[in-house]
Amino acid sequence: MFAPYLVWKRQFLGAAAVVAVAVGLNFLPDLAYPPADGQPRAVVWKDRFLAPMASKDRDSGVWASAVGYNHSLAGVMLRWLAYDRTTADRQSVAVPKADRISATELKWLNLGVAAALGLVALVSLWRGSREVAVGPVFAAEIGVVFTLMLLLSPMSSKPHFGILLLPQLAVVRAGFAHRDRVLLATAAVVAAAGLCTGKDVVGRAAYEFLLWNGLIFGMTVLLFFGCCHARFWYPVRESHANAEPVGAAARAA
Questions:
Q1: Model pTM?
Q2: Are 150 and 160 in contact (CB under 8 A)?
Q3: pLDDT at 136 over 60
């Protein structure tokens, strides 16, 4: 996601570096520990995980883990529309719905929602796009990219969502800076929901129920719209204006 973002910001060298590093790092293990069959591990990963996604009968959101562990858009939609949750040995088990949505319909629905999220992000980032953002507005801009990375990925497991710390801080900072009740309420809801992602806080039964039904996904969506809200309603120029007195006060001190 950062490669197209940097291209849009006209940071072409940075975009190229992102692609080069992302691809190059995946081939480094082959240099240190060459595969026995001579086939690069990145190629094996592509054939094993990415290529099957093109099949018409393959559900979006299916990955090398149980259905309940995928909290991206595709994973949550798959749980909501194609599976029911039951418990066995005190653990959540996915059971296919009798009247489930088809794999093709599921893919088109995911594409439609993803396109809608992309349009919202584009509208929010377009305002003041020719200027260099600073402060909470810049953090909110990066937060939009972070949340989209998690939402649009074919697989986002719970550990991936640690990067939501930055979008949450951006929403809090912009909320206090502009006395924005919408942003402050969003941050409060996300913070409360975050406590529920721990089994020791809410108990195992509630924990598994909430995660299955999209708790982490919902937190990410809230932060996505919060960052879009901050980026759109508080233009970049205002950040420059707010930054000047701070710098002047620091030099005076």
A1: 0.84
A2: yes
A3: yes
